[in-house]
Amino acid sequence: MHTTSSPTRRAVTKGAAWSVPLVAGASTVPAYAVSNCEKTVATHQGGRTTQTAASGSMSNGITVTSAATKGATSKMFLATSGEAGNGGNRGRYNFNVVNLAPPGATAGPYLELNQRTLVKHYRQASQTVTFTFPQPVYCVEFWVTDIDYQNGYYGDVVTVPGTVATPSTPADVTCSGSTCQSAHSGAPGTFGVDPGAARGLVRYKLTGRGLTSFSLIYSSNSSGKSSTNYQQVYVSPISYTTRADCTCA
C-alpha cells in the first residue's frame, strides 16, 4: 500500500543543498550558445559625394564614409550627382540609392558605389568605404552585386577584409579569400551584368565578433581608355545582431 508522509526539516534542507550545484552549473553554459538569433537589417539612406570623398548614413545610426585613393599615375574620381554621365550611367552617382532584388539576396535599397576614369593606367586607384556602427555587432553579412568587366575600360574588384565571400554564380565571379572579381577578367570583350541578376552577385559574411566598423575596398583591374568611363557595384542592406551570445551560421 502506498502511504504519504510529510518530509522532515532535515530532508528538506538536504534537498536544498543538493539543488545548489544545479544552479551553479547553469551559469557555466558557454557564451555564443544561442542559435537562430533574430537579426536587425539596416537599410541605406544614401549620402553626398565629391570627387574625392563621400559621407552617408544607414538606419539604426550607422554611418558610411568613403575616400578615393589614387596611385602615382591613376586618374580615378568618384562620380558626383552633377555629372551628365554617359549611356546607362546618366543620373547615377556615388552613394546614390537604388532599389534592387537580386535572386536569393536581400531586397531593398542598395548603396551605389560609382567611380570613373579620365585617362589610362587606372589599376592603382580605388575607393575605401567604411561602415561604422554605434555599438558592437555580431554576425554581419550583406551582398554586393553587379561585379563585372569590360576589357580596357573597367574590371570590378571588391575586397572586404575579414570576410568569407561566396559568389552566386562562380562561372561569372571568382573569389580568393575576401577579394572577388569577374571571372572573365583579362578576356577580350564585354562581360556586363544586370545589377538585379544573380550573375555578378556575392555574399560577404564577416568573421569578426564585437565589430564597431568594417571596410570595403572597390577597385579596378583594367586600365581605363582615354575617354571618361564609369564603373559601379551595389551594396545590399546589412544584417547583424547586437547579441554577443549568438552563433553565426
Instruction: Detail the poorly predicted runs.
Output: 1-33
Helix content class: under 10%
Count of β-strands: 18
The sequence of SSEs as H and E is: HEEEEEEEEEEEEEEEEEE
Largest sheet: 18 strands, antiparallel
Quick structural gist:
By secondary structure, the protein is mainly beta. Helix content is 7%, strand content 43%.
Name the descriptors.
18-stranded antiparallel sheet, globular, 249 residues, 1 helix, mainly beta, 18 strands
Summarize the structure in words.
The protein has 249 residues and is mainly beta. Helices cover 7% and strands 43% of the residues. It is built from one helix and 18 strands. The protein has one helix at 9-26; strands at residues 40-42, 44-49, 53-58, 63-69, 76-78, 97-100, 108-117, 126-145, 149-150, 154-159, 163-167, 173-176, 179-182, 190-191, 202-206, 211-220, 229-235, 238-241. It has an 18-stranded antiparallel sheet that branches. Strand 9 (149-150) and strand 10 form a beta hairpin. The longest helix is centred in the N-terminal third of the chain and has 18 residues, at 9-26. The radius of gyration is 25 Å and the shape is globular.
